[in-house]
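ok here's Gfo/Idh/MocA family oxidoreductase, seq below lol
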Amino acid sequence: MKFGIIGAGMIGRFHAKAIQEMTGGELHSVFDLRAEGAEKLASEFGAKAYSDIDAFLADPELEIVTIGTPSGAHLDPALASLKAGKHVICEKPLEITPERIDQMMDLAKEKGVTLAAVLNRRFHPAMEHFKAAAENGRFGKITSASCYVKWWRTQEYYDSAGWRGTWALDGGGALMNQSIHTIDALIYIAGPIKAVTARAELLAHERIEVEDSAVALVEFESGALGVIEGSTACWSSTGHPAEVQVCGTKGSVFLADEAFKIWDFAETGAGDDFVRENLMTTSAAGLGANDPNAINVTGHIRNFEETVNAIQEGRVPTVNAGEARKAVAVICAIYQSAREGGKRITL
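and the structure came out like this:
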């Protein structure tokens, strides 16, 4: 399928690399309001450049659009692309409120095109084993499920672009921007969240509107309890791994980025030896924890391939908009609880 990228910044470059390396897709065009940005990225990858969104979307060869604009600026390009009959894969968060996501989903349904999200941290072997363990009931009754993102961002990071750290365009801070993939993983493994009680603060940075530290008590529909913690105020020379910890009456697993710190079950499973030989870690370094550029492109490749395969097979992709909406709804509920002095908010 022929891809077009909206947004020629850092994330747009990741998208271009992923499209270049994927099976089943090629980069056809790049749009950015900054003509020089579009030209630079397009020329590097042998694509067409556009600085006019209408001309970009009118191209009949363009089939699928990826969106890499700031978080709170996903809605308009997504709606324009869907209205033009293009399939869409949008970066995280899909949008910064469930209501905006609903607008996107409604239009995609009306136009009969696919709206997918970038949930790239679902696509690695450790996550596949983690999900299989949950689906096969290996935890017994899940009693505790938590996630922790204790990262560091410099003041210069927030000062580097006017949209960073704003409610309107970032949609939030350490939770909405940095922690959303880990919160998605928590829900993906442990199931729906019923209620949250939270606090959020700005503790280590200046000149931003949003939180750099947040903690929420989480109640799952299953009855399990847990914690969501997100921060960009935790300095480390290497960055701490993002962790998802799930415990039950028959097993405990702690995932640190893309490998396990703990893989421990009361009953032996068929894949346990493979996990212990290939997917365990003792590393204290975090993937992209201190530097957002320091992530690999493999997850994006698999994310894009899954979406293309789903479109061609006439099915809903596993990274569909409804899946992406779940973490956004939880984060918005956490923000509401924090604004209302720690009030318990039900979803």
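fwiw The chain has two domains: 2-121+298-319, 123-290+328-339. kinda neat tbh
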